[in-house]
């Protein structure tokens, strides 16, 4: 019987920002249509508050 190797535990990282602590948000203009522009702005990840680690 082969011993099944255990996968090493994945390092904990925030799923929203992938551990980067910030997210790139598409800048949208226009109140109604919310047209997306090519501009992106880095925003602090609100899930982990910039730590890059998932909240408990
Ligand atoms: Zn995050």
Polypeptide structure, described:
The chain is mostly beta strands and 56 residues long. The chain has a domain at 12-28 and 39-56. It has strands at residues 22-29, 35-44. Strands 1-2 form a two-stranded antiparallel ribbon. A hairpin with a 5-residue loop joins strand 1 (22-29) and strand 2.
Widest sheet, order of strands = 1-2
Query: From the helix content, strand content and strand pairing, which structural class follows?
Result: mainly beta
Q: What is the β-strand count?
A: 2
- Taken from the alpha-carbon principal axes, the silhouette is elongated
Average pLDDT value?
83
Q: What is bound: which ligands?
A: zinc ion
Helix content: under 10%
Number of helices: 0
The rounded distance between the terminal residues' Cα atoms is 38 Å
Largest sheet: 2 strands, antiparallel
The radius of gyration over CA amounts to: 18 Å
What portion of the residues fall into strands of 2 or more residues? 25-35%
H/E series: EE
Uncertain segments are none
């Amino acid at each position: 019987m082969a011993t099944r190797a255990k996968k090493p535990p994945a390092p904990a990282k925030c799923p929203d920002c992938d551990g980067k602590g910030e997210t790139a948000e598409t800048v949208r203009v226009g109140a109604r249509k919310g047209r997306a522009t090519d501009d992106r702005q880095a925003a602090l990840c609100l899930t982990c508050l910039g730590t890059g680690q998932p909240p408990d």
